[in-house]
Write a structure and sequence with these properties.
The complex is a heterodimer of chains A (118) and B (117).
Chain A (H helix, E strand, L loop, with lengths): L1 E3 L4 E6 L4 E6 L7 E7 L6 E7 L4 E3 L3 E6 L4 E6 L8 E10 L8 E5 L3 E6 L1
Parallel strand pairs in A: 2-11
Antiparallel strand pairs in A: 1-2, 3-8, 4-5, 4-9, 6-7, 7-8, 9-10, 9-11
Chain B lengths: L3 E4 L2 E4 L4 E8 L5 E7 L6 E7 L2 E5 L6 E7 L2 E7 L7 E8 L11 E3 L3 E5 L1
Parallel strand pairs in B: 2-11
Antiparallel strand pairs in B: 1-3, 3-8, 4-5, 4-9, 5-6, 7-8, 9-10, 9-11
Classes of the chains: A mainly beta (118), B mainly beta (117).
Chain lengths: 118, 117
């Protein structure tokens, strides 16, 4: 089930089941999105990305869905394994200031902890 | 080589010390980033360098001073830090957005765990 802790929502799933992690992003002008996996004591690891001109993108065992109408991203993990246990962050790529800088920055969502139960 | 390296892995410093964090990448990326991450929180952007020039400063206190000596290196100089500055400091790099029309994957280093006493 899904629960909201003091700081980090947690999703617990049985090994072998599919996981769905959700994310709401903030800027309707953002046009590129990344899902990251972060294990304890490590930096975020790229999982999959998607441009705003797409609704769905598939990788190996992972699928990202994008709904621009409601500014929502989801990450689906098929046949969840113990090694998938980590914190998952979505990040949106949005234009920094000043707008003439041509530089874009990434804004991270709050994150979801995925716990895989044996 | 798709790796971003950071040194040191751990750093403990007093409030009067001066120290530096280092980051290196050899992927030819021209955008480099510093993030600060507190426990159970997402990474928070601090600085962005684009083509070795500071492009974004997210209103970071002056006790943090970034430096980009060349396209492969990024430093973060620390001076007179406070205990609340204790966190994981992450470096990242990506192709510069201005050049790349499609995907702009950002790679992270393992971070430096900083403790300020």
């Amino acid at each position: 089930g899904e629960s909201v802790g003091l700081h980090l929502p947690t999703l617990s799933v049985q090994e072998g089941d599919n996981s769905i992690i959700n994310c709401a992003y903030s800027n309707s002008a953002s046009d590129y999105f990344i899902w990251y996996k972060q294990e304890s004591g490590k930096g975020p690891q790229f999982i999959i990305d998607i441009r705003s001109n797409m609704d769905k993108r598939q990788g190996q065992r992972v699928t990202v869905l994008l709904n621009k109408t409601v500014k929502h991203l989801s990450l689906q993990i098929a046949a969840t394994q113990p090694g998938d246990s980590a914190v998952y962050f979505c990040a949106e790529n949005t234009q920094g200031l000043p707008l003439t800088s041509g530089t874009y920055k990434y804004i991270f969502g709050t994150g979801t902890r995925l716990k895989v139960l044996a | 080589d798709t790796e971003v390296t950071q040194t040191p892995k751990h750093l403990v410093m007093g409030m009067t010390n001066k120290k530096s964090l280092k980051c290196e990448q050899h992927m030819g990326h021209r955008a480099m980033y510093w993030y600060k991450q507190k426990a159970k929180k997402p990474p928070e952007l601090m600085f962005v360098y684009s083509y070795e020039k500071l492009s974004i400063n997210e209103s970071v206190p002056s006790r943090f001073s970034p430096e980009c000596p060349n396209s492969s290196l990024l430093n973060l100089h620390l001076h007179a830090l406070q205990p609340e500055d204790s966190a994981l400091y992450l470096c990242a790099s990506s192709q510069d957005r201005a050049r790349i029309a499609t995907y702009n994957e950002q790679f992270f280093g393992p971070g430096t765990r900083l403790t300020v006493l």
